[in-house]
Structure of Transposase:
Amino acid sequence: MFPQRARQRTKKHRAAARKVATLYAKVRRQRLDFHHKTARALIRDHDTIAHERLNTAGMTKAPAPKPDPAGGGAFLPNGAAAKAGLNRSILDAGWGQFLTVLANKAESAGRLVIAVDARSTSRTCLECGHLSAKNRVTQAQFRCTACGFTANADHVGATNVLDRAKLVLCDAA
């Protein structure tokens, strides 16, 4: 933190800012290296890769303020602190950067990358196709309210993404 009255940053502050910048640059290079290695492994092992089309800009948007009807000009809690932590983790993972690297490597290797609609992939039953928010018992557990099918929610979501990608391939053929 630089002094309140100083118009220019002190020498110590500039040195500290350079040190932080070098640390962030190292993290950025490590993240990019991980993205390249993971994308290369996926391209090497698979001919077609399907993923959810995610709106990361919309997902990391700040929550809207909630005005307090009783208080004049006051606001109710809107979960902004929790949302800020989630936003930080989404942006830190670099999903958009990874998908860009994956698409570029797939194009150069002659592989196919399909982005499918992410809506309701983890709430649709694999067995009967029933869609309900109540199908998702917990974050990790899926239980269909219509037919009773039970599985891991991530597995259900991934299988639904694969099925939707197959439909895209069939429509393209």
About this structure: The radius of gyration is 23 Å. Residues 83 and 111 are 36 Å apart (CA to CA).
